[in-house]
Design goal:
CATH superfamily: LigB-like
CATH class: Alpha Beta
Helix content: 25-40%
Number of domains: 1
Order of helices and strands: EHEEHHEHEHEHHEEE
CATH architecture: 3-Layer(aba) Sandwich
Number of helices: 7
CATH topology: Protocatechuate 4,5-dioxygenase, Chain B
Largest sheet: 5 strands, parallel
Length: about 230
C-alpha cells in the first residue's frame, strides 16, 4: 500500500497547546497513520529563492513568532533529520529539472513542529524539510510535488503544511483586502481542481497567523520575508 500524501492547515502556534477541534482532529488522525520510514514536509514558513532541501541530521528549533505564551517557547520536538533521504529528495528534484540547494543549520519552524507534535508526538520519525518558492506560482509547486511522487512507494510520508492562503498580514491591510479576496477566490478555484489529482488527502481547514523569519530579506510587496539560498 502506497503511503498517503497530506495537506494540513497547521493553524496558529497555539494549536500545539490550546484545546480546539482542529487540535483534536490532528491528534486522532495521527493515530490512524502507519508510522512511516521518514517524513518530507514543506512548511509555508520556509521560503527560498529556489528549491532547497534541509540535510541536517539533528535539526534544532525555530520559534518564528512573537507575543505568545512562554510555554510555546519551551516546546522541543526532537525528531531527527535524515541526510540520506534529504539527498534522495534533492536528486529527485534535480531529475525533474530543478536546481535544488542543500541547506544546513535550518531548524524546524512552527509550520513543521506544531502539526508533527500532534500527528507523531513520539518524535521518532526522521523529518526532512523542503522549501517553497511562492513567487514562482502554483504550477511550479505542482511540478515540484510531482517530482516527489515516487517517495510514496518508499514508505516516506510527504506533507504540505500551511493553508490555501497564508498571507494574513496583507489580507488585513485595508487597501489590499479586495486584492487579497480576489487572490483567495482564484486560489480556492485552483484547490478545487487540485482535489482531482490522485493521492492528495486534505486533512483540515483552519486559518493561521503569518510570521516572518530572522536573517531573511524583507519583501516590500507582501511585507513578509523571503529567505535566500546561495548558489552552490
Amino acid at each position: 500500500m502506497r503511503t498517503p500524501t497530506l495537506f494540513i492547515s497547521h493553524g496558529s502556534p497555539m494549536l500545539a497547546i490550546e484545546k480546539s477541534p482542529a487540535r483534536d482532529f490532528l491528534i486522532e488522525y495521527g493515530k490512524t497513520l502507519k508510522k512511516p520510514r521518514a517524513i518530507v514536509i514543506a512548511s509555508a514558513h520556509f521560503e527560498t529563492s529556489r528549491p532547497a532541501v534541509v540535510g541536517d541530521a539533528k535539526p534544532e528549533m525555530i520559534y518564528d513568532f512573537g507575543g505568545f505564551p512562554d510555554a510555546l517557547y519551551q516546546i522541543v520536538y526532537p525528531a531527527p533529520g535524515d541526510p540520506v533521504v534529504a539527498t534522495k529528495v534533492g536528486g529527485l528534484l534535480a531529475e525533474a529539472g530543478f536546481a535544488p540547494a542543500m541547506m544546513s543549520q535550518r531548524g524546524f519552524d512552527h509550520g513543521t513542529w506544531v502539526p508533527l507534535s500532534l500527528l507523531f508526538p513520539n518524535a521518532d520519525v526522521p523529518v526532512v524539510q523542503v522549501a517553497l518558492q511562492p513567487h514562482l506560482g502554483a504550477e511550479h509547486h505542482v511540478k515540484l510535488g510531482r517530482a516527489l511522487t515516487s517517495l510514496k512507494d518508499e514508505d516516506i510520508l510527504v506533507i504540505g503544511s500551511g493553508n490555501a492562503t497564508h498571507n494574513l498580514r496583507a489580507f488585513f491591510v485595508t487597501e489590499q483586502a479586495i486584492r487579497a479576496a480576489n487572490e483567495l477566490a482564484n486560489a480556492s478555484h485552483f484547490m478545487r481542481r487540485m482535489q482531482l489529482l490522485p493521492g492528495c488527502q486534505p486533512a483540515s481547514q483552519q486559518l493561521q497567523r503569518g510570521a516572518g523569519f530572522s536573517s531573511c530579506e524583507a519583501d516590500p510587496t507582501t511585507r513578509l520575508r523571503r529567505c535566500r539560498v546561495q548558489d552552490t
